[in-house]
Amino acid sequence: xxxxxxxxxxxxxxxxxxxxxxxxxxxxxxxxxxxxxxxxxxxxxxxxxxxxxxxxxxxxxxxxxxxxxxxxxxxxxxxxxxxxxxxxxxxxxxxxxxxxxxxxxxxxxxxxxxxxxxxxxxxxxxxxxxxxxxxxxxxxxxxxxxxxxxxxxxxxxxxxxxxxxxxxxxxxxxxxxx
Length: 178
Fold this sequence. Notes:
There is one protein chain. This protein is α+β, with helices and mostly antiparallel strands. The chain has one domain (2-158): TIM Barrel (Alpha-Beta Barrel), CATH 3.20.20.140. The chain has helices at residues 2-9, 21-24, 76-84, 90-97, 99-105; strands at residues 118-129, 148-158. It has a two-stranded antiparallel ribbon. Helix 3 packs antiparallel against helix 4. The longest helix is centred in the middle third of the chain and has 9 residues, at 76-84. The radius of gyration is 18 Å and the shape is globular. Mean pLDDT is 75; it is low at 159-178.
């Protein structure tokens, strides 16, 4: 982190990233040798606090031969929101997950307009526990099953018009892919 601060102080164009799971997990999780914690780069000690999803057959093994990897997209917002609550504003968390990567890659900012094809709505205060049913991926290799979080996607709309009724979105009890 110090090298990044120094480079930014010299006005160099540098970026850094962290996988959301690294905000909550450290190498203490490895004591039980559960393969859902085997990731590359590896979990670090709490002082130094990449996601690679793997299929079940490559994770349900002894720790040594198990593949590195963890799913992260389905829980990224909830993990970041829970880990950073009280220290980072919701606006900054969302910026870091959305606009920041676009700016680094030179991709234009997306604006919500009538006829938008992709939109995800979040409930930043939702209290929920992660289950396999919450994970639409074919892979469920996450250490967060059974973990309580604050904040979650409430609804995702894809490839169709998005419209609000009287400015209020209908509530969902769990994430939906429409």
